Amino acid sequence: MNLLQYITWNVDPEIFNIGFFSLRWYGLLFASGFFIGQFLMIKMYKNDGRLEKDVDSLTMYMLIATVLGARLGHCFFYDPEYYLSNPIKIFKVWEGGLASHGAAIGILTGLWMYSKKYNHRFLWVVDRVVVVVALAGGFIRMGNLMNSEIVGIPSDLPWAFLFERLGDYKSYLVEVNGQLSNVPRHPVQLYEAITYFITFGVLWKLYWSKGKELAEGRLFGLFLVLVFGFRIVWEFLKVHQADFMMGLELRMGQLLSIPLVLAGFYFLLRKTSSEKKEANIS
């Protein structure tokens, strides 16, 4: 491995610290995803003739569902033995640990509850929410980059990142010239962020160009295929996040993504009742 070609990454996760208060890049980016997402949801709701005040309620459902789902997903998908032995740790969100697959389950549950309460069609709501979720996912992965977490496997590519803040964690050290060393790695957080931003661009463009023509569930299906399809690819470049799955061909993130991609193809390819009716008439 050529250690002369890489990007040194030593960003402080904290923007500033005053007494007991500290502002971290991850928190700022996480919050930015929600604030920008709310602004974009208002634009879509207004375009669809819906009330702006409904977006405020939707944002609350989304925020609570995202945090609860992501936290529980991390605890039970990636380290169930530890958290079942230390259940109080589940509530210590500030110690880190959020999982996107858990967030997906939480968001869908929250949206189902929201659609029931406000008498919205579930897939109609989901089709709009996934547009901003893709954008928020990009912000969150940038937050992971700022935290130097969810790192990739070693790489000798010129854009590989040497995450200096990984320190001397033994699980990340690699033998180089007979010594264990911290080495450059794939910046998979950046890879994922870019693909999420691209997904957002595609969904946003489709909504404004063909939103009213698309059958309900189409944007949702495309979101699932793109986001979790890319996730399957990038997982090959990540270090294992679930220790109990070490040695297996597929990582936990891939196993959780496969059914979501299949569900995405279902929503993309299924025929709606109106389409079936048109087919029968013809």
Summarize the structure.
It is found in: Cell membrane. The chain is mostly helical and 282 residues long. It has helices spanning 25-47, 53-78, 80-85, 100-117, 122-146, 188-210, 218-235, 252-269, 273-281; strands spanning 7-9, 14-18, 21-24, 161-163, 174-176, 179-181.
Structure characterization notes:
With 282 residues, the chain is mainly alpha-helical. Residues 278-282 have low confidence and may be disordered. The chain has one domain. It has helices at residues 25-47, 53-78, 80-85, 100-117, 122-146, 188-210, 218-235, 252-269, 273-281; strands at 7-9, 14-18, 21-24, 161-163, 174-176, 179-181. It comes from Algivirga pacifica. A 1,2-diacyl-sn-glycero-3-phospho-(1'-sn-glycerol) binds at residue 141. It holds the Pfam family LGT. Its EC number is 2.5.1.145.
Topology:
Layout: E1 7-9, E2 14-18, E3 21-24, H1 25-47, H2 53-78, H3 80-85, H4 100-117, H5 122-146, E4 161-163, E5 174-176, E6 179-181, H6 188-210, H7 218-235, H8 252-269, H9 273-281
Parallel strand pairs: 1-4
Antiparallel strand pairs: 2-3, 5-6
Helix pairs in contact: 1-2, 1-5, 2-4, 4-5, 5-6, 5-7, 6-7, 7-8
Helical proportion? 55-70%
* Gap from first CA to last CA: 63 Å
What profile does the largest beta sheet have? 2 strands, parallel
Strand order of the largest sheet: 1-4
Overall outline: globular
Q: How many domains make up the coordinates?
A: 1
Give Rg in angstroms: 21 Å
Tally the beta strands: 6
The number of helical elements comes to 9
**Beta-strand level of the residues, as a percent range?**
5-15%
Order of helices and strands, N to C?
EEEHHHHHEEEHHHH
Mean pLDDT: 86
**Which parts are unreliable, with pLDDT below 50 for 5 consecutive residues or more?**
278-282
Category from helices, strands and their pairing: mainly alpha
